[in-house]
Structure formats: structure tokens, C-alpha cells
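Please produce the structure of this protein holding 3,6-anhydro-alpha-L-galactopyranose.
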Amino acid sequence: MGMKSRQRTIYAGVAVIGLLVPCRASSAQEGPRGDEPTRKSEMRASEAHFAGVPLSKPTDRPISAAMARLYDTWSPLGDFDNEFYTLFKYSRISGIGKDPEVSRRDPSKVIKVGDIYYVWYTRRKTEHAPVGLKNYSDETPDDVPAWDWDLADIYCATSRDGFNWKEQGVAVSRNTKGEYADRSLSTPDILCMNGKYYLYYQAFTGRMTHRKGDRCDVSMAWADAPDGPWHKINRPIIERGKPGTWDGGSIHDPYPLIYRGKIWLYYKSDVWLRDATGAPVDRLDGTPAYLGRSYHRMHGVATADRPEGPFVKSPANPIANSGHETCLFPYKEGIVSLIIKDGPEKNTVQYAPDGLNFEVKAMVVQPPVAAAPFCPDAFAGNGDGRGIYWGVSHIVGFGPGFLIRFDCDLHRDADRPFLKHGTVQADEASHFQPRTTLPQHMRQRFMREAGSSREETANIRLSRETGGQ
Ligand code: AAL
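Below is the modeled complex.
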């Protein structure tokens, strides 16, 4: 996480603005693992100012709420001093990258066995493109996917460098029609425990329907080696909540870690707006939902002693009020969660010293979607999480999904100063792109209403007249 890099960064910044910061430069060897002195406290102890901002919270005069937050929540040194802040760098990867014929998405954590990295993911190769759930009906032929993760199986790829991958073939496949999990398997994640391997994944039984929405079970398969063969348990591993509860709609994105002597299975749930019959609707009591079907996405966790369960849901659930896919990793004594798409706390890095009570620690730009980090201590359970510095994520929504690599600096032993500076700026093409990265239903509505929205923008009317310059 570049504590060392942060120190260098700060010195560079200070040198440029020519201020006195009475701190010693540290060598790369300095600071015992797991017990680094924080630069923040060193700096606060001093009377120095950084760009005219005192390094300790002023107590001799009133300060604004924003300035109080700078000291109470953040740091007067800003992002440089925030161990939870990072930029993300993306690279194309070969073997499981962009492919017009095949969709690959929702990767698992990356694990390393010997010299080989392994990743598992949703793979769909169908003759027809997904038609979207709204266009899907009883008449739609069986081999037409409703969406990108329909009619899929779990595949595995390996790599020696994290850039060049080789697809090894199917790891866990759908059952035959009429059986449990006969329609699609998607969104896997991996657990390694006692020398065995466990893949948790979404299991869809029967055709998709508008009424079911994205409802599926989470099931599991195990193997003695990462290359398989995989044995399916062919049943749900964790039950959905009762109808009407926060996780009564779906259990998605299962994400196992070992923490505090147990398996912690984090997951996401969608709460769709439904009418009295249970059908998803766009409006509630006549109040227009924002841009179409409305839902909350939240995360919960369930723990177990054994990979096959029983999993007991935490009474603290939901433990995140936002977020789409799950991406968590042990950090120091707690757990970090990347809250990526959806909800009021999207695009944040959060930390819970107890794995349950998460606080926003950084706001990030363009985080990896469905991030699946290389996290060698995901199953160590030693209370000394080191963090992450690369992984695999996906790009979806523009044809078949595909996998890419992301790099970041959220690791206590990494030294990547270029990932701790500033923010990301979108260029002209990104601002005016005809296809936005909005979810499909929002995009469709924007397109439909493009004319009227141009009109609206040219003639904005406020509810109260206001003067103008
Ligand atoms: C994702 C994940 C789950 C959902 C769908 C496929 O990115 O949250 O896997 O079911 O979208």
C-alpha cells in the first residue's frame, strides 16, 4: 500500500512547494511488517504546515465542517496519506480477453498454486445474443439467452504472469434439462481449505422469466486439485431470506474468505420493487421509480465451520448498503470491501476491523467492475491481512463480456507511487460517447427519451424562479 511510497510522495510534494517538514526519509527496509508507524501520526506530532494547512486539527479557532472532516475522517495530507486510496490501471489480457464469439465475466479471486495462477469465471458461447429479460417470453426458444450470464458454465484459465492466460476448459457445467441447476451456472468464487478447493457459484434452474428476475441459488462444487475434477453438491448452500426481507429476492456473488477461524461467505442481494403479486414493477403507488425498475443492492455475510455449511447469516446483515459485485480481502485485523457499482456508497473503499461494521475510507474513480483480486492470504485467517495489488475484472454491457487485468495499490507491502496520485479525467470521447455505461434499462430509457431530454436541458425549469447573471 505503499506506506513507503507514500512517504516518498509526501517528500516530493513538500520539496515542490518548499515547505519545511521535519521528518526523516525512510529506507525501503524500514518499518516492521504489520506494525508500520503511520506517517500521519508522525506528521501530526509536528507543528509543520502542509500547503498552509496545519497538520493537526486547529483548536484555537473555529473551523468549518469540511475542515473538521479533513482531520476527523481524512487527513490533511489528502489521498497521499490514505492507505485505502488508490487509482486503478487496466491492461488487456490474452486468452480470456475480448472475443466476439464468447462471453467471459464475473471472475473468481485469483489463486496461485505452485507457479500457476488460476481464475474461474462465467463463460457463455451461444449462437444467439442475449435478448434481455423484457423481450424474453414463453415463446423464446430454449437456446436463446435472456442475458449475458444465461446458458453459461463455469470455466477455468491459468497463467504464469497474470497477463497471458490459457483457457483450460469447463470446470463445472450445467445439469441436463429438468434437473437442479439445468439452465445456467455463473459468478463463481473460490475457497481453499484443508488442501481442498471449493467453488461457490450462482445456479439457475429452469428458464428465466420476468417474474423470477435474476433469482437463483448459490450452490457449490469441490475438488481435490484446482484442475478438478469438480463434484457438485447440487443443492443450495445458503438459503434466500423470506419474501419481503432484504435478501429474499436473490443471493448473488458468493465470496468466501477465511476469517476469525470460520468461513465467511459474503454475498450480494437485489431487492426489486414488486407489486402485490410479486411481479417486478417500475412504479410503487404511482410514484415514478428513478429511471425504471427500482431496487437496492446490498451485501450480507454468512459464516460456517465447513465449506458445505450450514451457513449462518449474520444478525448484522446487511453489512453494506450499496455495491453490486463483491470484492473483499483481509487487511490488517479486519476486512476491506470495494463497493463498486450501485447505491449511495458506490465507488468507495470501506474497512471493517471486525468484518461487519464497514466505514467509508476512500472514494475512488473507475474502480474495477466485478473485481477479483489476487489475494494470497484470503484463506490465511491470521489477522494480518496484507491487501491486494492486482486482479481480474470484467467489462460488460457492450456485447459479450470480457476479462481484463487491474492493478492498484491497496497492499501494505506494495510500492506503487503512480497509483497514489490524483484522480482520473475523462476525455472528450468519454464525455460524449453515444453509448453510456448505464445499466441497459437506463440506457434504453435515455435513448428513448433523447429528444425530450435535449429539450429539457435547453429549457430547464426550476420550481422557483431565480435570478441569474
Ligand atoms: C453480475 C453479478 C451476478 C448477477 C449478474 C451475473 O455482475 O452481480 O452475476 O447475477 O450480474
